[in-house]
Amino acid sequence: MPATTFSTAHNIHSLSSEKEKDVAIQSLVTAFHNDPIAQFAFPDEYIRDLNHTHLFTDIIKDQRSENVIIDVTEGAEAVAIWERKNPGDVSSGGDKGSCPVPPHVQEFFDKVEAAEPPRPYLYLSFLGSAKKGTGAGSALIRHRLKQLRKGERVALWTGNESNVKFYEKFGFRLFAKIQGNGVAAFWMVRV
């Protein structure tokens, strides 16, 4: 059977219109709907999607920090949200959105935060695509990595173990594995 090929020509740019922001929010909600950590934090699908809608709206439409970079593909069907993390920056307390989480979920987010790599680094907060397998996520990562300053570190954490191999293709290495309550998170660093 012949190998499937994907177009690697993705037009990467910053968000430019309210309509594009709305599409980007929906793309991320779709991408994270079945995420293991999201399912752990919000087992009810309706609450999960509502929480993600609020979370991504807060990040994308109410962006207040010059440290946040949002890259999208044409049509905003794939989105990467990056943040510069510097020593002394106040932590966001986990990327769980505006819905309250049960204590066991907060405890897990606290463990993830405690395992954070030393700062400074560029943090890949979210990478998601409404359509999997198009190469858009890879294009978004390559786009930002090409723009790094010499010696700049990049870090991320994922709650999906199958993503570890994906990120390793871009030079990320496992930094820490956090387990608890039947879920796991994997901090990864690229130097």
UniProtKB/TrEMBL annotation:
Query: Mind telling me which InterPro entries this protein's record contains?
Result: Acyl_CoA_acyltransferase, GNAT_dom, Trichothecene_AcTrans
A single Gene Ontology MF term assigned here is: acyltransferase activity, transferring groups other than amino-acyl groups
* Annotated PROSITE patterns: GNAT
The N-acetyltransferase domain is annotated at 45-191
Any Pfam family hit = Acetyltransf_1
Question: What domain of life?
Answer: Eukaryota
* PANTHER family (UniProt xref): GNAT FAMILY ACETYLTRANSFERASE (PTHR42791), N-ACETYLTRANSFERASE DOMAIN-CONTAINING PROTEIN (PTHR42791:SF1)
**Annotated protein name in UniProt:** N-acetyltransferase domain-containing protein
Origin species: Rhizoclosmatium globosum
